[in-house]
Amino acid sequence: MLLKRVAQTTYPPPPSGPVTRTGPIHCPSPPQPPEAPMQAAISAKSSTNRDQADSRSATGDHVLGQYIPLLYHYNMLQDEDRVGAFQQAINLLVSPGMHVVELGGGTGILSSFAARRGARVTCVERNAELVACARGLIRDNGLDEQIEVIHQDATEFVPDTEVDVVICEMLHVGLLREKQAQVIAAFKRRYRQAHGKKLPVFIPEVSILMAQPVHQSFDFSGYHAPVPMFQAPLLDQPRTTDFASLSAYATISYDEPIPLQFQVQEQLTAIRSGAINAIRFVTQNVLAVDMSKEQAITWPNQCLVLPIGSPFDVSKDDSIEMAFDYSAGGTIEQVAESMRLQVA
Ligand SMILES: C[S@@+](CC[C@H](N)C(=O)[O-])C[C@H]1O[C@@H](n2cnc3c(N)ncnc32)[C@H](O)[C@@H]1O
To answer: Where is the composition biased (Pro residues) (predicted)?
Structure first.
């Protein structure tokens, strides 16, 4: 019931603004990854959000499809909606003396919240530049006694002792592009082999993946460009008109078996007449649930609007068939190519 209410929440927009540095930075200079064609299509304006980050790197890290340039990591620090929601969840679930593991620690900010709650933290990161960055910043913040940064692929990591809380923020709309699902599934498998059946608590606890048919204005000052668009997680977007209620196609509880494939075929009812030309993907993450207050701490990803090849008209109350098929961590192209939307 609580999750249903969370799925229906209206999403706050993320902050935006230029890259700012407020203190000494010990991180290496960010590399300049090559521009990908999809990236060129979607990054018309600069953004604080990593959704527009190129997924390739000069180091070959693109194999896992989750390379995020250092500059985006710096920008992610100032995304107060993201950082604030995780801090709230960590403050709720972490207490002194706990052992906390962070999978994919980046600059180390989320690990620092757990350490400040008095936990011993193991922060696992596979990107060498970020390992150096995190170690420097953690030392400067006086937290190096409490946080150990381990340079390792999190899918191979096994903690030395039992863990109370696992933090993992490799979240992308639709669980696309980043490997949240695979990393947590691998961690659980290895953890159970080493420490028995009882799992730690996960932050986030749940991700709810939703989609809906929409009409999207792809006209930009008279220039028509039906291309993938990221948008602030605010359902009421001036360029977007929804044609059916949001449909939740997967609810992933990270302490239960995690699906790695999303094969969706749904019948929806048109809520208005007009032309449909895209599917909007919406993802809400429940970072923690405060049972005493019956309140969920949530963080929504940016929404993704993908155009369909053949726009069509519907009348109110028509039945619409929406189908798509992709793997967790898959590419936007994979979803786009699989999409089918038609009057049933
Ligand atoms: C979206 S960032 C989040 C970073 C940090 N937790 C934060 O909130 O600022 C995801 C991080 O996971 C790391 N990562 C991705 N795949 C990984 C893997 N298999 N093992 C370890 N780290 C990984 C990336 O290098 C990146 O630093």
So the answer is: 27-36
